[in-house]
């Protein structure tokens, strides 16, 4: 049975052009870009060309401000730990939000274990951080503010520009985890005004296990990986050149097709949201207006999201109950509790993420399957009977 | 002009079977192994199968003791920083050797900046650490000993078993950087007795940007990458599954062909060393008897290794003057100074690393080219004229 992928945030398919570029890179079998003979120089040229292409996607002023990493999680760890450790003489305080990805939350938890202080800000019912709260949280000890660009469970897009104005005024470094935004919505590090920005290739139909960290020139940050002089001394280790070449191809296409893709995804998303009342009731849409074009968070009351996910799987449809990175945990999502959902509603939540490979027929098939699954589960739900 | 690669330590070519496996992985375009629907489960199955294959290469008791990383540098950073930060309550002292790779040296330098203490041990003229020195260096504050399995510039293989006996007795954690050994010489984490062991796929003709860290069950170590629950909670972040599949295929072949490969490389290495006196004089072989089968370190007196490398490049031959990871630095190699070479002799050093794709004809062509280049450079060397 072919699977309808409605879990793109966990894994986007590779673009055919990305596959071709990676296969060509495997055939070319480049030498080490750090080697100073001609075989090394040929590899270095491809690496730097890839850096230019990726830098263009986020409008970095200088390609050298882009550091290639092993993905969004490494980028975030590098940014958060690297900035805090590098600036300890100035202070030990970091400000985040309650709905950050675990890469941020668990990174600052490590720092806490080393004697650093963390302030984590509440969000409103839409999942939005209030810039005034950021301003109020910053002290003389604050080194870093890390607020995500978009949330991976609700799709909420944060007021990054407004927060950046505050951090600039207060001379605090600002990192944004834009892993689910880069290549999905327009991202311009100049207009955003951030100092560091994390991203991952798979979000724009490139390979997993490769990503990047934008580091604005002059930002004081330690490498996470110490060793050789690769990546302009910002990230040691032999490069995953095949992955980087795939990411560059994906970035090139994403930049060209961004408006078209956004319009298409928004249309599918609207089709889904608008049709829902015809299929189910007793649900909550957790995704606000200003959100990712490809994400719908849907809380199905009185039933377990996990059960819905598994039954949809039997129907040949992949959805997520929360971030794939958090799977394996049985606790309710910290994000959904933070926006004010009850524990029960949080547990009944599906994250549906659309991709450019989805069709209107996929949406319609999903709605039908969802109707069936929800009815089956509610028929045996004591909570539903009681309500 | 086809290039004769005598710089395999900087980059080994991909085995044809590895290329095939990676191309098949690109075509399969797996979903996220952390997703709990069937698309995720299919990816997880491939991931765990790869882990078993890689674990077999190093004789890990349990595949779960193998953590996939973005390469040797990440593995080393994870091991060194992870162990020291996790065990701060017990102490803050780490013991390394003077000839470790920069991944180790710069990792402990970071720790020093955070108030940790480092003891770096001398080596003898062969590049060997004396186990008695390790025993003497360990204090009640010592958490970790990190001594490399083989050195990337001299090829020296260290007495890891003897050191492990000491660390076990003294209840100190022992990490070995085996990046240039795994897949090249037999590595058995049981007989070595180490607690952690770093390795990289490219050393055994797998892709760059992917590697592993062996962590013996029960070893107290923090993740370097915090976030999701991937890799049994030891390394967060979506996996580079295409690279991991390539590494597993390379590991499978390496395990089968190790004796054959070693015999072949030793024969080429002997041919090179034995023939040298017929082509050049005034040189030093820095590689001791007990060394990697594929590495020859050669100090050419009175001339610059950099110039030799560039002129050999013009002859279509790739060699290294030192670790590719250290290229970009003009300082003499810390390894060569540590084994007692003068600054001048250190600067005149070539690292020749052979691969299974090299032939006897490559060796003969190299010897002829080397003779020509050395003569040209010595004819214009004031140092040589004076001597």
Describe the structure.
2 copies of one chain form a homodimer. Chain A is α/β, with parallel strands linked by helices. Chain A folds into 2 domains: 4-12 and 258-386, Alpha-Beta Complex (Aspartate Aminotransferase, domain 1); 16-253, 3-Layer(aba) Sandwich (Aspartate Aminotransferase, domain 2), CATH 3.40.640.10. Helices cover 43% and strands 13% of the residues of chain A. Chain A has 14 helices and 12 strands. In chain A, the strands form 3 sheets. In chain A, strands 2-8-7-6-5-3-4 form a 7-stranded mixed beta sheet, with helices on both faces. A 3-stranded antiparallel beta sheet of chain A has the order 9-10-12. In chain A, strands 1-11 form a two-stranded parallel ribbon. In chain A, strand 6, helix 7 (189-192) and strand 7 (196-200) form a beta-alpha-beta unit. In chain A, helix 1 packs antiparallel against helix 9 and helix 10 (305-314) packs across helix 13. The longest helix of chain A is centred in the middle third of the chain and has 35 residues, at 241-275. Chain A starts with a strand and ends with a helix. The model of chain A is unreliable at 323-327 (pLDDT under 50). Chains A and B meet through helix 1, helix 2, helix 3, helix 4 and helix 9 of A and helix 1, helix 2, helix 3, helix 4 and helix 9 of B.
């Amino acid at each position: 049975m072919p699977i309808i992928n409605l879990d793109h945030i966990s894994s986007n398919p590779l673009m055919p052009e990305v596959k071709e570029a990676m296969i060509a890179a495997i055939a070319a079998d480049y030498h080490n870009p750090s080697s100073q003979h001609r075989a090394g120089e040929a590899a270095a040229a491809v690496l730097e060309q890839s850096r230019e292409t990726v830098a263009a996607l986020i409008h970095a002023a200088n390609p050298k401000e882009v550091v290639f990493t092993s993905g969004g999680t490494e980028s975030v760890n590098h940014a958060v730990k690297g900035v805090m450790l590098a600036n300890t003489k100035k202070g030990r305080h970091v400000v985040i939000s309650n709905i950050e990805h675990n890469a941020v939350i668990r990174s600052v938890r490590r720092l806490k274990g080393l004697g650093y202080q963390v302030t984590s800000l509440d969000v409103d019912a839409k999942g939005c951080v209030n810039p005034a709260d950021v301003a109020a949280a910053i002290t003389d000890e604050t080194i870093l503010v890390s607020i995500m660009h978009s949330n991976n469970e609700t799709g909420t897009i944060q007021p990054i520009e407004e927060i950046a104005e505050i951090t600039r005024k207060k001379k605090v470094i600002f990192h944004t985890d834009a892993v689910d935004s880069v290549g999905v919505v327009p991202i311009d590090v100049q207009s955003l005004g951030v100092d560091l920005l994390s991203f991952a290739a798979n979000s724009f139909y490139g390979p997993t296990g490769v990503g990047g960290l934008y580091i604005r020139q002059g930002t004081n940050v330690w490498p996470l990986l110490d060793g050789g002089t690769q990546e302009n001394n910002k990230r040691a280790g032999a490069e995953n050149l095949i992955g980087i070449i795939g990411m560059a191809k994906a970035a090139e296409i994403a930049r060209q097709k961004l408006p078209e893709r956004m319009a298409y995804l928004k249309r599918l998303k609207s089709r889904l949201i608008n049709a829902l009342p015809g299929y189910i009731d007793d649900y909550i849409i957790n995704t606000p207006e200003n959100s990712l074009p490809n994400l719908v968070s849907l809380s199905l009351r009185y039933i377990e999201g996990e059960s819905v996910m598994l039954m949809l799987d039997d129907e040949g449809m992949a959805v997520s109950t929360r971030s794939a990175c958090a799977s394996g945990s049985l606790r309710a999502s910290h994000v959904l509790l933070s926006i004010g959902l009850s524990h029960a509603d949080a547990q009944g939540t599906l994250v549906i993420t659309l991709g450019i490979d989805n069709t209107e027929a996929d949406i319609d098939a999903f709605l039908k399957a969802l109707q069936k699954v929800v009815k089956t589960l509610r028929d045996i739900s004591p909570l539903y009977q009681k309500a």
